[in-house]
Amino acid sequence: MGVGLSFLQRINPAWFLAGAAFFLPIKPAPVNLLVLLACVFAVLNKQCRGAILHFCVRKELIPLWLLLGFLASTYIYASNEVSAYSEFISKYGRLALIPILASVLLTPENRRLIGQGFLAGMVIVLVLSYAIWLGVDPSLFGSKATDMYAIPSNPTVFKSHITHNFFLVIAIYLWVVCLAKSENSLFKFFYTLLCLIGLVNLFGMIDGRTGWLVFMVIPLYFGYQKLGLKGFLLAGFIFVSLLVSAYFLVDNIHDRFSTTWLEIQQVLQGQPQKETSIGERVMYLTASWFAFLNAPLFGHGLGGIQGAVQPLVEVAGWPTFYNPHNQFLMFMLQGGVIALILYLWFFGVAVYRSTQSAWSHTYVLPLLMMYLVGNLLNSFHFDFAESMGFVFLYAVLLGNTK
Questions:
Q1: How many Cα atoms occupy the beta-carbon half-sphere of 275 within 13 Å?
Q2: d(CA 296, CA 140)
Q3: Cα–Cα distance measured from residue 386 to residue 57, given in angstroms and rounded to the nearest whole number
Q4: H or E element: which one contains 279?
Q5: pTM for this model (two decimals)
Q6: Are residues 393 and 37 in contact, defined by beta-carbon separation less than 8 angstroms?
């Protein structure tokens, strides 16, 4: 029995985390299973057990425990709907995995494994996306075509265009870093090729303006790194100029921006359309803001969003909702200003800590900025793949800090 346990203790939990990172842009079920196995073997490992307890009391996680505790306490709110509360507490509860996963990522080798797993998964997604674009039946590799997804005109594979593009931006950034750091000419060619076909897929093939806005983090980050504020502004100007040029040269970008302008005109005329993404977001933001003003300090509870916005959307003849597609606004609705402050504290600590070493400044800080932009346009702690990606990212950061 002792020999068997000793064998189990020698199994590296990072292997399972690397597998989970591989499946992150593909399928959720393997991610859940592999994360569970990583947690089990982390608890069996003596070194990891000690690190878990150490991380749980780290000052970086104080705002997280306060946030989760406060949100959990909203169960007593009269406005709270129990089934919605249960759904949200399970989704936000994933953040509690951070100290367990961080205990597995104490060494550079293990942190490298999780990055390699994710990038390998993105290579598979990219290859299959091009296959769909060329007309290959997506059912051959377990993807289902719909009117919007997994079709040649929008060749997403396993995820929606928002998730596909968001993870693709992260992958492109990491491939650029690998290209810059590689000394092998063959690897340099490989990373250059991945960057190029990734950019074509992002801007020329997949619908999704969120990914384009998140991509802006990359040139802004490199510009600021090289030339400070001047580089930041110059990179922003060049990026916008390239987008304007692409509007006239790339059909996908031209169509998406033309649609965007039409939707903006509808909003300005006071006639936002239900079928348009901008029209829907205007409705989400407007109704959510006024609902927030009705309970600005403590919010409406984890399960209270739908009830809070329903009177407001009914007046306008819109359907009710429980996801405002803005993570910061979602926290404001659920827990008021208190929840927002606690989350910004939690996120801000991560940003600060990621600037304290060259490694985290390169591999963590830009990705946190991508999540910052993404959360302004979507609720990434509500969506499974993005929320687990954030857990992995924060665990990587925590594992690298002393």
A1: 2
A2: 50
A3: 25
A4: helix 277-294
A5: 0.89
A6: no
Q: Hey, is 136 helix, strand or coil? A: coil
**What's the 3-state SS for 291-302?**
HHHHCCCCCCCC
Separation between Cα atoms, residue 141 and residue 337, nearest integer Å: 45
| Whole-Å CA distances, 268 to 113, 118, 287 | 49, 41, 17
Cβ burial, residue 298 (10 Å; 0-12/13-18/19+) = middle
Spatial neighbors of 345 by CB under 8 A, at least 6 apart, are 63
C-alpha–C-alpha distance, residues 129 and 150, integer Å: 8
- For tokens 């007309």, what's the residue? 135
Note the pLDDT tens digit of each residue in 69-105.
999 999 999 888 888 999 999 999 999 999 999 999 9
- Listed in sequence order, the DSSP H helices in 24-107 are 28-44, 46-56, 62-73, 82-92, 98-102
Written as one letter, the residue type at 269 is Q
Contact by Cβ (8 Å): 54, 48 = no
| DSSP characters over 8-47 | HHTS-HHHHHHHHHHHTTT-HHHHHHHHHHHHHHHHHSHH
Contact 111/398 with Cβ under 8 angstroms? no
CA distance 378 to 165: 13
Residue 136: phi, psi to the nearest 5?
-70, 140
- Whether the CB-CB separation of 231 and 194 falls below 8 Å is answered with no
Contact 362, 332 (CB under 8 A): no
Tokens of 43: 């608890």
Both tokens of 126, joined, read 């990219």
Check whether 183 has a pLDDT greater than 90: no
Tokens found for residue 221: 């980050």
Among candidates 375, 276, 281, which has minimal Cα distance to 324? 281
Question: Which helix (DSSP H) or strand (DSSP E) does residue 350 occupy?
Answer: helix 327-354
Residue 246 confidence (pLDDT): 61
